[in-house]
Amino acid sequence: MTMRLTTFLLAAALPGAVLAEGARLELDCTFVTACDAAGQCAPGHGPARFVVEPEAIDDDGTGLYTLWVDDGEGHTATGASRTGPFAWAPEEDVRMQLALTGETSALWIRQTLGTGGETPAGAEIDLMTCEVTF
């Protein structure tokens, strides 16, 4: 077992109050596959970086997080566990979700609701490989 995985498993077993103090999840990812709402997929390209920091979580990791994408501003996100999925809304008609799907993989869903704006409803789904650190 790798040191990172061992650290992750150990951290996941700790109570939320201990993890909430300064524990951060950092993902340095590369897009592997990009799919649209119609299910059309193509090879992905480019990097993405996510930083997820717990703010108010329970022992299972459920609660509020601050999430940054690349060098953008932090957004309040809700998390179902310490590994996601994390859900946030960076804009009024945009919803996003991020979930770790394995030791070195993640899924990023970007959904446009299309309510009242000029942009039609749609979604993009990206499968990524990631280096995960704490």
From TrEMBL:
Residues 1-20 form the signal peptide. Keywords: Signal. It comes from the Bacteria. This is Elongation factor P.
